[in-house]
Backbone:
């Protein structure tokens, strides 16, 4: 799964050396220094699995980003109820008449039994919603993780103790149950239960709930990293020159936690995608008619769709599997590129 | 040697010929609390890392601080550079008490006291270019040298013997010795008056050690910077320091000018340290045979140091008095001014071979027996 085999087989690598020093020193003529970041990028580029999975991941994000444009070119949107617009395509039960869920030159991925939404645009917009939510969760989690993790690690003492206990407490929560139970509670904070819940409230609630139980592992890792960094002599050197704590955190610590941060973020994002899909599948996340990746699974598992249109399941299913696998492979490659010693 | 030979000597008097004191430390103490106990954690003891030391460094002077691992040398250095808060005692710099000054109060003299670290692999931020590392202190202190910071960085790189065009490189592209030179350049960036060098060469290859020591010596002489040079053996300090202090378990046990310490040591521990220094005979000069002393056992724990004289558990001259009375750091009769020793029963002021070697380590002693039989 990881790089070494690929590198050997790929034949592209001449120097794949974890020890950056010797390989860099060989070229004394080159005066522009190669930063640790650039060395990682060079290592990453040699890792074929990593590059391919990065392309797949970028492809998914591009789809999400360009969904409105694509659907415009394609000429349909995910909200049109084709059961009303084009009743001739459906039988009396609302199942598309044509085989495989009504796949045709006009409806590339077919039509959804029941309301008859266009599956292709629904999937595009579903990916868009899911990725947007997961990205927002990742960003809030990363910010919280940096803030609390670095504070605990660098300041130590009471701050560290307090943050450590909060993390222990939150880690003891059963996450899945908590999500399901707290979603309605969070939603009701924004709107009264009698009114119809606007989509943005559901989105916000999903972000809050996942963020609340999502930041601890990252904060712990960053705490450990900062704790180790604090003992390094270059931090003392900065203090001897009179640097403030704020400057030390900004200029000396943060650039050095980027590595674990990126690695963790590439593992976290796909887990948030699946968690969000899980919630929408269970009906506490995004609901119809807003398209959502996870909610498509719940649609696929309804009796009507299950019995009449098994092909429907393939589109959200396969796309999500590809996405998650690619993202996790990317995470492995990023980690290997950052820390070549773990690969061997 | 009887006690009437002891003269209470006022600290440093008469030895002041070298100039005015730049840094004066008196009664400096650092105890690290030891936590323990269950279920409630509380302080159950203290590591007496530094326990009441006095020393002074004069303008432009190189002062050596020597002692075994764990005796509190680094802690002393970190207290002086104010990286740690002292438990007790005062540190005064140019007559100003800085032992408890806050970061803001320290700002004006921050640039005058700098530090060179032991480990060249951990003392440079791997994410910054050499230029950034060296110009960092100038940036923090808002110093804008004529011609710009980059020009100054090039100058500094040149001073420490590195290619000035390398300022865009990253630390991982340099060897240990080169990294240590970068550390020296960083310390010089603020044109300090005092540099605390904490074992600056002990992490380096022996072949490179001499180069770096020469660089430091050049810097010290040409720029007139005072050094507090910390080392764990007497060999390196010999070429570098005008005055030397020997530390044992958080205390200074002997201090004096270089000649006194190296040729007329009085404290048994100094004798032991000196006999561990590899012999270097100067060309054309036949060095006299030297005494051989091999200590036994380990340094006792600084959490519970021995009563009286802290060296008594490993001392071959120890008597009852050593356990009950702590020897004061005083000038013994026959010693030069400024040469202070803390011992009740000092050795003769010579390093020449004794009739019988002192070998306290039983394993070593057995070995010696064997070899002498062959
Ligand atoms: N932050 C700390 N907390 C607790 N104990 C400490 C701390 N720093 C140092 N010590 C203890 O203080 C004593 C002196 O340590 P110090 O680092 O000053 O020794 P050293 O003479 O520099 O030794 P070395 O030659 O190994 O560098 C040691 O026993 C050490 O364990
Ligand atoms: S005081 Fe006693 S124990 Fe200490 S060094 Fe002198 S003789 Fe040895
Ligand atoms: Mg040390």
Residues:
């Amino acid at each position: 799964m990881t790089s070494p085999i690929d590198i050997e087989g790929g034949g592209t690598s001449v120097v794949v050396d974890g020890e950056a020093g010797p390989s860099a020193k060989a070229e004394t003529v080159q005066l522009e220094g190669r930063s640790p970041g650039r060395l990682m990028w060079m290592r990453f580029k040699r890792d074929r699995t990593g590059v391919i999975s990065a392309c797949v991941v970028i492809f998914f994000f591009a789809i999400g980003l360009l969904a409105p444009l694509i659907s415009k070119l394609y000429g349909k949107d995910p909200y049109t109820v084709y059961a009303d617009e084009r009743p001739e395509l459906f039988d009396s039960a609302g199942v598309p008449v044509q085989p495989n869920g009504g796949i045709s030159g006009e409806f590339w991925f077919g039509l959804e039994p029941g309301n008859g939404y266009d599956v292709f645009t629904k999937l595009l917009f579903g990916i868009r919603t899911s990725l947007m939510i997961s990205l927002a969760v990742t960003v809030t989690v990363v910010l919280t993780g940096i803030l609390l993790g670095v504070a605990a690690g660098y300041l130590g003492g009471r701050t560290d103790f307090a943050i450590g206990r909060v993390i222990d407490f939150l880690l003891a929560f059963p996450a899945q149950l908590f999500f399901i139970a707290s979603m309605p509670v969070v939603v009701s904070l924004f709107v009264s239960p009698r009114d119809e819940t606007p989509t943005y409230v559901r989105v916000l609630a999903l972000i809050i709930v996942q963020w609340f139980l999502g930041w601890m592992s990252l904060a712990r890792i960053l705490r450990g990293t900062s704790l180790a960094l604090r003992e390094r002599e270059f931090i003392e050197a900065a203090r001897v020159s009179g640097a403030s704590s704020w400057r030390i955190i900004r200029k000396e610590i943060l650039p050095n936690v980027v590595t674990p941060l990126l690695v963790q973020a590439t593992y976290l994002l796909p887990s948030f995608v699946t968690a969000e899909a899980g919630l929408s599948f269970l009906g506490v996340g995004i609901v119809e008619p807003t398209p959502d990746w996870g909610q498509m699974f719940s649609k696929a598992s309804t009796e009507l769709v299950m019995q009449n249109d098994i092909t429907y399941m393939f589109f959200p299913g396969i796309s999500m599997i590809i996405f998650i696998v690619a993202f996790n492979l990317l995470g492995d490659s990023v980690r290997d590129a950052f820390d070549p010693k773990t690969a061997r | 040697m009887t006690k009437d030979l002891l003269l209470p000597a006022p600290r440093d008097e008469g030895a002041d010929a070298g100039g005015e004191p730049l840094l004066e430390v008196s009664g400096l103490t650092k105890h690290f609390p030891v936590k323990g106990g269950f279920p409630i954690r509380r302080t159950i003891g203290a590591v007496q890392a530094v326990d009441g030391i006095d020393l002074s460094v004069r303008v432009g002077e190189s002062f050596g601080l020597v002692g075994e691992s764990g005796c509190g040398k680094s802690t002393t250095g970190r207290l002086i550079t104010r990286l740690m808060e002292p438990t007790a005692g005062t540190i005064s710099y140019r007559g100003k008490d800085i032992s408890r000054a806050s970061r803001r109060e320290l700002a004006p003299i921050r640039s005058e006291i700098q530090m060179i670290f032991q480990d060249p692999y951990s003392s440079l931020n791997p994410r910054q270019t050499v230029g950034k590392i060296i110009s960092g202190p100038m940036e923090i202190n808002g110093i804008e040298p004529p011609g710009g910071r980059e020009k100054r960085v090039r100058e500094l790189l040149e001073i420490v013997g590195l290619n000035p065009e390398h300022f865009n490189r990253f630390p991982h592209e340099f060897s240990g010795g080169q990294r240590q030179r970068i550390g020296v350049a960083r310390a010089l960036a603020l044109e300090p008056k005092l540099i605390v060098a904490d074992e600056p060469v002990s992490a380096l290859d022996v072949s490179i050690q001499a180069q770096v020591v020469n660089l430091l010596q050049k810097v010290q002489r040409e720029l007139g910077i005072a050094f507090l040079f910390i080392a764990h053996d007497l060999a390196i300090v010999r070429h570098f320091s005008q005055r030397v202090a020997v530390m044992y378990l958080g205390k200074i046990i002997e201090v004096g000018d270089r000649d006194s310490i190296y040729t007329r040591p009085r404290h048994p521990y100094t004798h032991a340290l000196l006999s561990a220094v590899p012999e270097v005979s100067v060309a054309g000069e036949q060095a006299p045979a030297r005494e051989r002393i091999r200590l036994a056992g380990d340094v006792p724990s600084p959490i519970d140091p021995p009563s009286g004289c802290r060296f008594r558990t490993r001392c071959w001259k120890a008597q009852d008095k050593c356990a009950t009375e702590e020897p004061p750091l005083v000038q013994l009769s026959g010693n030069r001014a400024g040469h202070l020793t803390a011992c009740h029963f000092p050795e003769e002021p010579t390093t020449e071979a004794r009739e019988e070697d002192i070998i306290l380590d039983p394993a070593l002693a057995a070995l010696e027996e064997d070899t002498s039989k062959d």
Q: What stands out?
A: The pocket of adenosine-5'-triphosphate (ligand 1) is lined by residues B 32, 47, 49, 67, 69-75, 232, 302 (CB under 6 Å). Residues 1-17 of chain B have pLDDT under 50 and may be disordered. Chain B has two domains: 15-35+45-248, 259-278+289-373. The first helix of chain B runs from residue 73 to 80.
